[in-house]
Amino acid sequence: MTQSRRTLKADTITMAHGAGGKAMRDLIEDVFVGTFDNDDLNKLEDQARFDLSALQQSGTQLAFTTDSYVVDPVEFPGGDIGTLAVNGTVNDLAVSGAIPKYLSCGMILEEGLEVDLLRRIVTSMREAAEKAGVTIVTGDTKVVPRGKGDKIYINTTGIGVIPDGINISASNCKPGDKVIVNGYVGDHGAAILNARGDLALDVELETDCQSLHELIQSMLEVCPELHAMRDASRGGVATVLNEFAETSEVAIRLEESAIPVRTEVRGVCEILGLDALYFANEGKLVAIVPDSKADQVLEVMRQHLAGKDSAIIGEVIDGYSGRVLVKTGFGGERILDMLVGEQLPRIC
User: What is the pTM of this model?
Assistant: First the structure.
């Protein structure tokens, strides 16, 4: 990577850095172009341009998604807002079966933001993008007055290509299908909550933020007919499963004892009276897999670092259309409703 020329002399962001003049040019060339450093971005055009024929070699369907990130705090154990912005958008593409290709990056900076903090966040974005095999090819920067933002907000938009023969949809769930998650649930929500310092807990909690596209591609190699899949971010696993049940007009039953939850996360939930199934994740997927392929998919997932703790946690059933049920350790059942309201604000 070409080293930044360090043309930016300021220690903090000022309104001039969003005004379109030399100060803004220095910010863009130094912090963004100097860090992301790729041929498409370095041209500094108002748009990125792609060779469609090259994209079509991977498939004939284009996947397109966008998301905004406002997490508080912007740095936390295991990641920061930049890591979230890249991996979150990559995963939104990947759960459709798409191969992620390109990202845009829109920055809203608050006057007074420390430039060193911005450099760390942009560096995290570059490292996450390199790891995920995507390129940040275009972007935008705006500055708002002090007190009108909260340090930094990021919007990322992603483009990927879905290979032929892949049809993953929330409407595809069938009775008998198995429900699989790729590891411990609730890590990100618990880590952000703990990082805010409100609970003063002496526990080590890290975000699970990671890109999932390589794991998903390995799943599709053994099960291209995989029925449904989403990343369980805001609203957690519970929200994803309720969306599946409603859209497919089926019911889903979970085995509470089979759901992987860390002891530390379970402790946070018990203190606050919350349920880990509603906690946000930034590196966890929920997959609905045909019963005949479930064991094979699980085996492949466990061979991957992002899926080593994968588990079958339930199945799709007839009756109770649109319901998600949890079989408890006491032998009874409880209804797992859609999240109502905001359990934890600004967790991504």
Answer: 0.94
